[in-house]
UniProtKB/TrEMBL annotation:
<keyword id="KW-0964">Secreted</keyword>
<dbReference type="GO" id="GO:0005576">
    <property type="term" value="C:extracellular region"/>
</dbReference>
<dbReference type="InterPro" id="IPR034289">
    <property type="entry name" value="CuRO_3_LCC"/>
</dbReference>
<keyword id="KW-0186">Copper</keyword>
<dbReference type="InterPro" id="IPR002355">
    <property type="entry name" value="Cu_oxidase_Cu_BS"/>
</dbReference>
<dbReference type="Pfam" id="PF07731">
    <property type="entry name" value="Cu-oxidase_2"/>
</dbReference>
<protein>
    <recommendedName>
        <fullName>Plastocyanin-like domain-containing protein</fullName>
    </recommendedName>
</protein>
<dbReference type="GO" id="GO:0005507">
    <property type="term" value="F:copper ion binding"/>
</dbReference>
<dbReference type="InterPro" id="IPR045087">
    <property type="entry name" value="Cu-oxidase_fam"/>
</dbReference>
<keyword id="KW-0677">Repeat</keyword>
<feature type="region of interest" description="Disordered">
    <location>
        <begin position="279"/>
        <end position="298"/>
    </location>
</feature>
<keyword id="KW-0479">Metal-binding</keyword>
<comment type="similarity">
    <text>Belongs to the multicopper oxidase family.</text>
</comment>
<dbReference type="InterPro" id="IPR011706">
    <property type="entry name" value="Cu-oxidase_C"/>
</dbReference>
<dbReference type="InterPro" id="IPR008972">
    <property type="entry name" value="Cupredoxin"/>
</dbReference>
<dbReference type="GO" id="GO:0016491">
    <property type="term" value="F:oxidoreductase activity"/>
</dbReference>
<feature type="domain" description="Plastocyanin-like">
    <location>
        <begin position="144"/>
        <end position="278"/>
    </location>
</feature>
Length: 298
């Protein structure tokens, strides 16, 4: 996230400090990063005492901070253009989870996988972008990513004895150029639970809503901030909560979407968003350059 800092305080030096936040049952590492914000014409001397930071699992402090973030109408920012309800042509509801798959070669008989809507992403041997360029190339991916969880359950409740079907695959989301898209990302208590930072390549999106527990598509949209939501490209999905994002699909191409916890991404908490070409050259993906290397065997 980019932030704008106004250097309008008393000349001097100011402490900065950052502590990681964790709401997972997995043991985190409590590293604190510190620094000093110093005015160039400062003669030295600190203008603030050491900062008192919340503890790592202080969910209330985290939520209170995030709820204060707003889009600011300044010249450095692009014009606010939040898709209204009437603009939304594609709605996607995604449950984030860490699951198990049977494994005959594993000591414990199963292995961990991470999923989006019970699909654990498999990286193909041929690049999806190349396959998309070559329309006659089949078998690399399928355009049937589930737009809703295949099983609806109490995502943020006690899931001790719940087993949901999980599959592996290279299944992508496809939208038309210019469509307004809404994605609701639902954290679950599957695995260790906890937060997931979800990143979408090729786009900045508006973080329009968040709430505790299970998303309710009847009542929760009334709480959305469609006036001045933050414009970001990675959104924090806190444990036991949901977030909603919106954007216009005006960047044609093939875009990776994944959890920014590398371990979760390597386990399969990924998908791909394909934005189809528009009706003009300007709204269409550029053709591949003649020098672009090809995958072996294609």
């Amino acid at each position: 996230m980019d932030v704008l800092v106004s250097a309008n305080r008393n000349v001097g030096q100011y402490y900065m400090a950052i502590r990681p936040f964790s709401d997972s049952s997995a043991a985190p590492i409590d590293n604190i990063t510190t620094g000093i914000f110093q005015y160039t014409n400062s003669e030295g001397g600190l203008n603030a005492s050491l900062i008192t930071l919340p503890v790592m699992n202080d969910t209330d402090a985290m939520i209170n901070f995030l709820n204060q973030i707003r889009n600011t109408n300044v010249s450095q920012n692009p014009r606010i253009n939040v898709p209204a309800d009437k603009d939304i042509k594609r709605r996607v509801f995604i449950a984030l989870a860490v699951n198990n798959l049977p494994c005959s070669t594993c000591v414990v008989g199963s292995r961990l996988v991470a999923t989006l809507n019970n699909v654990s992403y498999v990286s193909p041997s041929i690049d999806i972008l190349q396959a998309y360029y070559n329309r006659n190339m089949s078998g690399v991916y399928t355009e049937d990513f589930p737009l809703n969880p295949p099983v609806i359950y109490d995502f943020t409740g006690n899931l001790t004895n719940l087993n949901t079907p999980v599959e592996e695959g290279t299944r992508v989301i496809v939208v038309n150029y210019g469509e307004g898209v809404e994605m609701v990302l639902q954290a679950t208590q599957m695995g260790a639970g906890g937060s997931h930072p979800i990143h979408l390549h090729g786009f900045s999106f508006y973080w329009v809503g968040t709430g505790f527990g299970n998303f309710n598509n009847k009542t929760d949209p009334s709480t959305y901030n469609l006036v001045d939501p933050p414009l970001i490209n990675t959104v924090h999905v806190p444990g036991r909560r949901w977030v909603a994002i919106r954007f216009f699909a005006t960047n044609p191409g093939v875009w990776f979407m994944h959890c920014h916890l590398e371990r979760h991404s390597s386990w399969g908490m990924d998908t791909v968003l394909i934005v189809r070409n528009g009706k003009t050259k300007k709204t269409s993906i550029r053709p591949p350059p003649s020098t672009m290397p090809r995958c072996p065997g294609t």
